[in-house]
Amino acid sequence: MRSALCWLPILLAIVTVICFSVSYIFAVVRGDINAFWPYISDTGGQEPESCLFGQLLNFSAFLAMATMYVRFKLVQAFNNYDRSLRILNKVALFMGALSSLGVSLVANFQDTYVVSVHLTGAFMAFGIGVVYCFLHTVITRKMYPMYNNRSIWILRFFISLLGLVSLILTFVFASIASAQAGSIAQVTDFSKKWNATEPGFDEHIVSTMSEWMIGVAFLSFFLTYVKDFQKITIRILPELLVSHLDETPIVFNSGPTERTGLLA
Fold this sequence. Notes:
Blueprint: H1 7-30, H2 49-78, H3 83-108, H4 115-142, H5 150-181, H6 184-187, H7 201-223, H8 226-229, H9 258-263
Helix pairs in contact: 1-2, 1-7, 2-3, 3-4, 4-5, 4-7, 5-7
């Protein structure tokens, strides 16, 4: 019997693709962006597509955090001996939480209104997200050959490398486009529509394409968890502290608590 948790990263990928696709279509049809390779955030920069973009991307952030938590518990369940692996696993979960928070900031603070917060969220989502991918690539390597095969950590390494290269290209070519355009304000004017005759247009397109590749890399990385999640279930068991809800709870320190079960 396969665990239903394997659908979690699949649902994450589906919701994220729907988010980007629908907001892109809305933005193009309304004429808010150019159809040719906008930044991801540009597709949700104007109303009404910004409402849909924010709602679905918040849901994606939640699903990403849930996916990373299940991965954390899976690694924890297999590892009872390696202290370095336990530390890496907890650090990766923390990085994943920061990355998910960054996705939520991107969703809630549009680039056309609160640029500084939006860019901070983008750095958290993409930059820290790449760190998360590499951390779990290292974890996967340390779990070989006892708990997983060689091919999976190699696959995760190349996906993480794709994310890193795409991240670097995004920022490098955005800076080059800024220099070509003559002003950083022109590049960070997210309501602006670039056209092929403007200086820096080619570099701008390389930057936007690279940003989309980061998203592809992240979703691909999460989809490598599908097979692993088929083999794990997570349960939260309630424990009554009273026999009547008007009674005062008396807690006996006799065993694991709910916090122990979730975060230990």
